[in-house]
Write a structure and sequence with these properties.
The chain is mainly alpha-helical. It is built from 15 helices and three strands. Helix 12 runs antiparallel to helix 13 and helix 13 packs antiparallel against helix 14.
């Protein structure tokens, strides 16, 4: 009996956290701090009237980083088993916060959208927390014994949850978060081995919905400017044209740190969504390549942690967290280089903005805890190995056992 028990249960091997993952995050944050200071150190007359100094944004960013390290340490201390139990309550809590943006005196409206809630001494964007909560919920859902990739009911349940959040996103409106949540959900379902005969029809059914959404006048202007930004370079295509100018003027080695011309009120959102353009202008192709390489390395470390995980829930959780960060970075790169229409998505760890930074650092804290290997008191080895084989087959195209 003892032999049978030892065959199914395996004691975890506790080791140190993944130092490579932590180093990648720290380098990205150092990159971001440098670029944020560079882009906001020039004070225009309008900012001077508001008593904003050259260190205003930089000091606020440093304050957010301090909070972020506190969040990272907190999530690092949480056992994955505790996260699994808290998956549904956390999802409900994030939904409540998401709806609070519509409440007077609590919700904050900016740029025609209601995406923030007022928290002293700043604001918070609940949609960022929703992504993290959804990843944890999906990891729990996909690791349940009754989850079956052959059943349509197993496929439709997470889509209903996703759609509920997306309805609120579109009310704000926040099309970028709507698409991000869809990418995360469908990617995790695909990694779990969900049948393509279920995934393909959903993508087809989404076409008319997306068509209706993009036909909104302001979204349609973004599409037309994306296809030909030079057609209206001083109007709808202005931001993308300025982005091209910034990236192109940097050349191979860049104009030099602090020497950007586009940050002089030419390129909008140069310290937030379009901060990658500033990297390309001041540090050139060399700096941009180093930055992309850091994200690739972070992605590889996250996938490696998932492949080493010896628990089914933890395996899916680490995949999901890695995708959450990597997909957003990929979309941001695609936006600023004109490969996809403009969306309001920050570049993880670099862009100015507290909500995204706090959530992404929380995700890194969870990944660092998982990388230690003490992800469960006992290991559900059979289910874990199956999950890992399925995920590897779906990502890398390797042959494996049918799910």
């Amino acid at each position: 009996m003892m032999q049978a028990r030892s065959a199914t249960l395996k004691a975890p091997v506790i080791k140190s956290y993944d130092k490579g993952l932590l180093l990648a995050m720290l380098l990205l944050m150092a990159f971001g701090s440098l670029m944020i200071y560079s882009s906001t150190s020039v004070i225009t007359p309008l900012l001077a009237k508001r008593n904003i100094t050259e260190f205003y944004y930089f000091k606020r960013h440093l304050f957010t980083m301090v909070l972020g390290f506190m969040v990272l340490f907190f999530t690092y201390r949480i056992k994955p088993s505790s996260l699994e139990k808290a998956a549904v309550p956390l999802l409900i809590f994030s939904f409540v916060l998401l709806t609070m943006v519509f409440l007077p005196y609590i919700g904050v409206k900016a740029g025609g959208a209601r995406r923030w809630i007022r928290l002293w001494p700043t604001t918070f964007q609940p949609s960022e927390l929703v992504k993290l909560a959804m990843v944890i919920f999906l990891a729990r859902y996909l690791s349940q014994p009754d989850y079956d990739t052959k059943k349509f009911t197993s496929f439709i349940k997470p889509l209903v949850v996703m759609a509920l959040f997306q309805v609120v996103f579109l009310k704000q409106p926040d099309f970028g978060s709507t698409m991000s949540l869809a990418f995360i959900t469908l990617s995790m379902l695909f990694i779990s081995g969900m049948r393509l005969r279920y995934l393909a029809p959903v993508l087809l059914l989404a076409v008319p919905v997306i068509y209706k959404l993009v036909m909104e006048p302001y979204r349609l202007r973004r599409i037309t400017s994306f296809l030909d930004p030079w057609k209206d370079p001083l109007g709808s295509g202005f931001q993308l044209v300025q982005s091209f100018i910034a990236l192109g003027s940097g050349g191979i080695t860049g104009l030099g740190l602090g020497e950007s011309k586009q940050k002089l009120s030419f390129l909008p959102a140069s310290h937030t969504d379009f901060i990658f353009c500033l990297v390309g202008e001041e540090l050139g192709l060399v700096g941009a390549t180093v930055l992309i390489a850091l994200f690739v390395f972070l992605f590889m470390r996250g996938i490696s942690i998932s492949n080493r995980s010896e628990d089914k829930f933890v395996c899916y959780l680490s995949y999901g967290l890695t995708l959450m960060i990597s997909l957003q970075a990929l979309i941001n790169f695609a936006v600023v280089t004109g490969m996809v229409p403009t969306k309001g998505l920050p570049l993880p760890f670099l862009s100015y903005g507290g909500s995204a930074l706090l959530v992404n650092m929380a995700a890194i804290g969870i990944l660092l805890r998982i990388s230690r290997g003490d992800d469960a008191a006992t290991v559900r080895e059979a289910g874990t190995m199956k999950a890992r084989r399925v995920a590897r087959r779906n990502i890398y195209g390797r042959k494996g056992e049918a799910h």
